[in-house]
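Wait, mind explaining this?

_____
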Amino acid sequence: MTKQKKNYGKYCPNPQFERKEYEFLCGEWKFSFADERGEPSLWQTIVVPYSYECKASGIGDESVHQCVWYEREVEIRPHSGAVLLHFEAVDHRADVFVNGKPAGTHCGGFTEFCLDITQLVQEGKNLITVRVFDSLDKSQLRGKQRARTESYECWYVQTTGIWKPVWLEYAGDVYIRSFRVCASPDGEGTLSLQLSAPAAVQYFIYDGEREILSGHIPQGGQTAETSFRIPSPKLWSGSSPFLYRMKLVVSGDRADEVFTYFGIREITVREDGVYINGKREFMQMILDQGYWKDTGLTPPDEEALEKDIALIREMGFNGVRKHQKVESHIFYYLCDKYGLYVWGEIPSPYQFDEHMREEFSRDAADIVVQLRNHPCIVCWLLFNETWGVYRINDDREQQAFVEQVARSVRELDDRPIITNDGWSHLNSDILSLHEYEQDAKSLADEYLQRDYVVTKKKINQNNYGHAFAEGYSYRGQPIMISEYGGIAIAGSKGWGYSEAANAAKLDEQIRELVHSVESIPYLSGCCYTQLTDVQQEVNGLLTVDREPKLPMETMRQIFLVNNGYKGEEVYGK
């Protein structure tokens, strides 16, 4: 039971939190659906990290099962420090046992967790067992997973159980639990760490292979913090994605070493747009739901993520809206490395009650903390199209909850926030509107001619409703159309927001829509729907197999915005 899935292992599991000693646990595990008592019934084989609903898992059962079991034997080698067990994502609640003893429980289908299993393992063979509970509960964060037993509209087959990589790490006797690096364009920075026990810490900062700075944090509590200053700092942006390397060393009988990186950049928003390091960047985004044909929400391998980012840049986009999903660690690392801007979006629940509020508050905070060290993320998108807060336009209780979540996120990170993407905004830092009008002239007229839509750049409403919820109004935010397009080709098995008769007509219709959107002088960005076909929704620029529906050069001519660089000069060079 030690077979590893090919291509999981090209990179370390998390390039922003890398230890030298780790072992992937991807590959074949024992798997069972639960019987009526919730116990394992008939054991079979599953390929992790693919959910049982996926063909690549070796099972391919799309029916709903509310309890499933995993089991795998692992070899623990001689080691004097801590042994850590990582799960990048398990949907939705995971109870983990090691050698029959409870190791920990985690709730939240999109967030990672780590368990210290040092006291539960011995050298040699050990047994890891995972029991997972999932359901069609609309109160939990679902993203685009269906809340019925069949797929419908733009909601797809559910994802249950382990759906991202699992790995073991061998750490020091005192080890780093988490850290945060913040640095401003003048080179002033802070390093904050959470440790498993009080200890002294050394840090080393590198420009390439050259050490440029080092320091020492004396032993204190389990929380450690220091400041540093980088002389003549090099800044990170889409056109120049420079990353500093960092090594963290915790003292102890067996020192813990963690390797990471960070970028220095400043994001500000003004009425005329988003500024990166003081330079205005028109956000030419593509909406990406991150689904694949045989693996669902899970990338087939790490090379699939590299290919998607290469295609996005080649088509002329400088950013991606990762829609209703928290993607793999490797995805955000590649966006950091190659300079692709990302909108960080919290996956949606679909009803408002006390359970939803607890789930959303916890998971939103966990997601922000998990991703906030990535320079590629330019904003946080909390809710989409009122999903889960359907009465936000006039219900004070729902408004108060969204305001509370926004305050909590602002305390954790200083990036711009979109409170409800599409319409009925509260105190958003960016006014983002959805517009699926398919007639290009009508779309342009709506935003340029009709007084009920635009009055001195103040958006009152579009075809979908009021831009602001009751009690809120425009206060000088940059304005973007954050969803538009969505054209399918006639004869495709599925749906789009409209249909083009053939590829030539698709070219024509997309050009006209893009031209109309980009002719609106006060827009500071837009996001085309969408990158690929997804199950029954077939309005992607690419098929589900990542085959372009138009020549790549044609799409580049349509979408490329001159922001001072060319995508192919950044990616892969």
Notes: Confidence is low (pLDDT under 50) at residues 1-5, 563-573. Residues 22 and 169 are 4 Å apart (CA to CA).
